[in-house]
Write a structure and sequence with these properties.
The complex is a heterodimer of chains A (about 260) and B (about 150). With about 260 residues, chain A is α+β, with helices and mostly antiparallel strands. Chain A folds into 2 domains: about 80 residues, Ubiquitin-like (UB roll); about 120 residues, no CATH class. Chain A is built from 7 helices and 11 strands. In chain A, the strands form 3 sheets. Chain A has a 5-stranded mixed sheet, with helices on both faces. Chain A has a 4-stranded antiparallel sheet with strand order 8-9-10-11. A two-stranded antiparallel ribbon of chain A has the order 6-7. In chain A, β9 and β10 form a beta hairpin. In chain A, α2 packs antiparallel against α3. The longest helix of chain A has 18 residues. The chains are: A alpha+beta (about 260), B alpha+beta (about 150). The interface between A and B is medium-sized, with 15 and 11 residues.
């Protein structure tokens, strides 16, 4: 693979071509705040918090480090005065939209942000993590962005119940401000914000409802004829029983026996 | 929903996923809005996630998910029409029909929306009713027109 030499925060470094600035920074333990980035998901560049300043051909510019592939020799400043000023402004705008919630609160406190534009109470920063994890990782596409401009929102089709949702909960796990929540009540799972309502299956050992039926069905369809009992044991019942159960499937095809 | 009609549109667009915007435009030409059952049908036929079709349908202002009236009124609020009183006509219609732009009257007779320019600024303010253009409009003329249609 081709390499390029860059200078990042004054340090010379040779990196593989087309690697993103954020990945280089993370390897060097340089902290860059992110809201819409997740290593398993294609960089989306929506939150702009990972903005850094680069110098290319003697010209300076701001780029989002998560989706900027390094093509040639550049100089990168990840934490200078200009960058911090921009990040503070972005945080102020985020607070104006959703107020102090989750990761926004965490990062805003780190940057000592004093919001000039008020404190809002919306429930979504439109980072796209939920939409993109559902599309790229789960492959279900239960939710999407709707409308645009000030009306842009995350929503299931027609704003009704998310009929395609399998209840895996990946969106709730990734939501940086905790808007999407999983609420399990006996045999029902409700996922807030995306408006999903699912039937749960019981744990084979303790009998507690814990996993959506549709999720099990989905896995079954995707990976073929697998004995599904293995998925039907709740976290608390895993452990010794779980290993025994797994062993009974001889997943290695008997090679290690 | 007439499946044959929708199938014809899909056929015309080669049953291709990447023609989705064109397909939605053709659907809207037939129904004047995008009916939910048609979108579900297209999603199944072309194997496009319904959430993505919904996303596209709500992104473009030209698409509507709400049914339109028998008479679909457009009022131009482009710069030229606006300064010549297009805004006054739109306010008048709001009161007369008791609906907001983008809505349809209860009797499903009228729906009206505001648009940003129709490219005929010389004859502004313009009111369009079901593809027919009426130039140099004012409140009086608009009222007459509406009363005639009622």
């Amino acid at each position: 693979m081709e390499n390029v030499e860059i200078i990042i925060d004054g340090v010379r470094k040779v990196v593989p071509k087309r690697i993103t600035i954020l990945k280089v920074a993370q390897e060097l333990k340089i902290e860059i705040p992110t809201l819409c980035y997740h290593p398993a998901i294609e960089p989306y560049g929506a939150c702009r918090l990972c903005t850094v300043e680069i110098e290319k051909n003697n010209r300076k510019m701001f780029v989002t480090s998560c989706n900027y592939p390094i093509e040639n020799e550049i100089k990168i400043e990840t934490n200078n005065e200009n960058v911090i000023k921009i990040r503070k402004l972005i945080l102020e705008l985020l607070i104006a939209k959703v107020g102090y919630k989750g990761k926004v609160k965490e990062i805003a406190e780190k940057y000592n942000v004093e919001p000039r534009f008020g404190v809002g109470d919306d429930d979504c920063i439109l980072c796209g993590l939920c939409v993109n994890v559902c599309k790229e990782i789960i492959g279900v596409n239960a939710i999407s962005f709707s409308s645009r401009g000030i009306n842009r929102d995350v929503s299931p089709p027609f704003g009704k119940e998310a009929v395609d949702c399998i209840g895996c909960g990946a969106c709730a796990f990734l939501c940086p401000i905790g808007t999407i929540k999983i609420e399990d009540l006996n045999e029902k799972r409700i996922i807030t914000k995306i408006n999903a309502n699912l039937e749960l299956e019981k744990c084979k050992i303790c009998g507690k409802y814990f996993v959506p039926k549709k999720f099990i069905e989905y896995i079954k369809n995707k990976i073929g004829n697998v004995e599904l009992d293995v998925f039907l044991i709740c976290d608390e019942c895993k452990g010794e029983n779980y290993i025994k159960r797994l062993a009974s499937f001889s997943l290695t095809g008997g090679k290690n026996e | 929903m007439k499946k044959l009609e929708v199938d014809k549109i899909l056929e015309k667009n080669g049953w291709k996923k990447n023609k989705i915007v064109g397909i939605l435009q053709d659907i809207q030409d037939v129904y004047y809005y995008l009916p939910e059952d048609v979108l579900i049908y297209i999603s199944e036929k072309l194997n496009i996630p319904l959430s993505q079709i919904y996303s596209i349908s709500t992104f473009y202002k030209a698409f509507s998910l709400k049914p339109k009236g028998k008479y679909r009124i457009k009022i131009c609020l482009g710069t030229a029409c606006h300064v010549r009183g297009g805004y006054i006509i739109s306010e008048f219609l709001k009161n007369k029909l008791k609906i907001l732009p983008g809505e349809t009257t209860k009797d499903e007779l009228f729906s009206f929306e505001t648009v940003n320019c129709l490219g005929a600024c010389a004859i502004g303010p313009i009111v369009v009713i079901n593809e027919k253009y009426y130039g140099q409009m004012d409140v009086e003329k608009t009222e007459k027109l509406i009363n005639k249609l009622k």
